[in-house]
Amino acid sequence: MLELRLVQGSLLKKVIESLKDLVNDANFDCSSTGFSLQAMDSSHVALMSLLLRSDGFEHYRCDHGNFPMGMKLENLSKILKCAGNDDIITIKADGPGNDTVTFMFESPSQEKIADYEMKLMDIDSEHLGIPEAEFHAIVRMPSSEFARICKDLSSIGDTVVISVTKEGIKFSTKGDIGTANVVCRQNTTVDKPEDATIIEMQQPVSLTFALRYMNSFTKATPLSNTVTISLSSDLPVVVEYKIAEMGYIRFYLAPKIEE
Amino acid sequence: GSKQSTITKFFSKL
Predict the structure, then answer these.
(1) Residue A31: how many other CB atoms lie within 10 Å
(2) Contact B6/A257, CB-based, under 8 Å?
(3) Minimal CA–CA distance to A234: which of B10, B2, B11?
(4) B2 and A208: CB-CB below 8 Å?
(5) First to last CA, chain B
(6) In this structure, are residues A6 and A60 in contact, taking their beta carbons and an 8 Å threshold?
(7) CB distance B10–A259 less than 8 Å?
């Protein structure tokens, strides 16, 4: 028996919207830790890791140890679009061996209750071990600003060079029509803490990434006012959006490497 | 030119 009641149902809607362009189908894992997912895009260039901790749910019951539920994200998205933004979402399943999952949507006033049953799928997914890393630079900035930069640069070029130095974090691209550079300096003198740009640098780092993926990651912007970008010269970048009181969604993107 | 690497180059299967 699995029963997860999420009062802020819109979080789940936003999470799936941020994943569905990169991930076709995936196993959601339910354990005592929480509701989680690890999946790669079909080219294995990006890896997505989601955690919604069990204590963030109003009710969290998962009796079967680790219980993977294979879902096609496009179908899940269709169903979650039927939930109102203020609805409470309850996910129910009978346990291993059962091939359906039920989503119940309750309006805040409880005057409307809907349930949608979705077929589960068997998915062969390989879990990757993500090593604990020492990053050369960790930058926290407003998520809307990061989204804006990725969108702006993708009208000029296909790749972005992200460099962190004492000066700040620099995003550069070049294309047929010309070049673009955007520098964000550390800025902690802001009225609201979420507007700050904070740069922790151990050593300068510069890496090249495909902008198409970065733009996809920014679909998670509605989940958090801030984004954290962690860079090391020999590792995938980690773009993390914290999910209030519940966990995170992390996007790992493999760099482009000079031949 | 630069070549796109993959996640599996960096992280191994469990």
Answers:
(1) 14
(2) no
(3) B10
(4) yes
(5) 32
(6) no
(7) no
Place of tokens 């519940």: A246
The three-state secondary structure class of A21 is coil
Say whether A128 and B7 touch across the interface (CB within 8 A): yes
3 state SS of A144: helix
Q: Is A44 helix (H, G, I), strand (E, B) or coil?
A: coil
Encoded tokens for A73 = 């994200």
pLDDT in tens, chain A (259 residues): 899 999 999 999 999 999 999 999 999 999 999 999 999 999 999 999 999 999 999 999 998 777 789 999 999 999 999 999 999 999 999 877 779 999 999 999 999 999 999 999 999 878 999 998 899 999 999 999 999 999 999 999 999 999 999 889 999 999 999 999 999 999 999 999 999 999 999 999 999 999 999 999 999 999 999 999 999 998 999 999 999 889 999 999 999 998 8
- Which of A128, A135, A232, A252 has the highest number of chain B CBs within 10 A, making it the mutation to test binding with B? A128
Are the beta carbons of A184 and A153 closer than 8 angstroms?
no
- Chain A CB contacts of B8 below 8 Å: 40, 44, 128
What's the CA gap between A9 and A203, in Å, rounded?
Answer: 41
